[in-house]
Amino acid sequence: MKIAVSGKGGSGKSTVAAQLVRCFTLHQKPVFAVDADPDANLGLVLGLDPEELDKLRPLVELQDVIEAKNYGGGALVDLNPNVNDVLENYTLQEECLRFLKMGAIKQGGSACYCKENSFLNSVLTTMLLDREEAVVMDMSAGIEHLTRGTSRGIKMMLVVVEPTRAGLNTALAVDRLAGDLEIDQVLFVGNKIRTEADREYLESSLPPDRFAGMVAFSEQVLERARRGEPLVSTEGDLLPGLEKIYKQVCGR
Ligand SMILES: Nc1ncnc2c1ncn2[C@@H]1O[C@H](COP(=O)(O)OP(=O)(O)O)[C@@H](O)[C@H]1O
Ligand SMILES: [Mg+2]
């Protein structure tokens, strides 16, 4: 299953992405956890070692690899170099989990063919279209890492939305972007739901058949975030609503 998680900053993308990743690992399913948000913190939320995370180089910064794989231009440009070794050597591994950081995408005007972006594209294409492992990508609201090519590999985009007007507006904007990229399924995840009114607000504002589920507001999550502690290590740490979303995601 190849999933992208998007939504407004602070809506809970990294939280939901990390919890989904943990659903996969708790079921012993091999999974790539991809931090594709320039405001990167998925690794910490997953509880990976901060020192190891600091040492892990984001893909856009692998100049040596990018040059060696001939993204440098010239007559002998290999349009589709094998990047499976990158998924071995530039990921943090913990049992069936492989974690990688994409890094901030380089903007190059309307026609950007810079080599870093081609390299990111190859790695994403390999992960999304060639490899068997599940993928959970933690994205920004801009979903700028996806192109028309790589978006074919995404089977589902989850748009995390808080029950506020601003949250809704961003969620709807992300939904339109995802539509432009022709992503198969774009489903909303209501997050930080405290009351029945929160739930009703989202249900009345978004199409009912477009919900993957709702996640309750959790004091425990907030407390752990304050202390900088990982969110999930055992099944008991999964937020109410998450296992249901995981089953839906896997069942579709
Ligand atoms: N269901 C929840 N209950 C309580 N706090 C939450 C919940 N989901 C997210 N948070 C908190 O909200 C903040 C933003 O969440 P985060 O996942 O980092 O958002 P994003 O990745 O979208 O910027 C964090 O402090 C996180 O702990
Ligand atoms: Mg985040």
Summarize the topology:
Blueprint: E1 2-7, H1 13-26, E2 31-35, H2 42-45, H3 50-55, H4 63-68, H5 84-89, E3 92-94, E4 97-101, H6 115-130, E5 134-138, E6 156-161, H7 165-180, E7 185-193, H8 196-205, E8 211-216, H9 219-227, H10 242-251
Parallel strand pairs: 1-5, 1-6, 2-4, 2-5, 6-7, 7-8
Antiparallel strand pairs: 3-4
Bound molecules: adenosine-5'-diphosphate and magnesium ion.
Magnesium ion (MG) binds at residues 13-14, 37, 39, 41, 138.
Describe the protein's architecture and organization.
The chain contains 10 helices and 8 strands. The protein is of the alpha/beta class and 252 residues long. It has a single domain (2-251), classed as Rossmann fold, CATH 3.40.50. The chain has an 8-stranded mixed beta sheet, sandwiched between helices. β7, α8 (196-205) and β8 form a beta-alpha-beta unit. α1 (13-26) packs across α10 (242-251). It is globular.
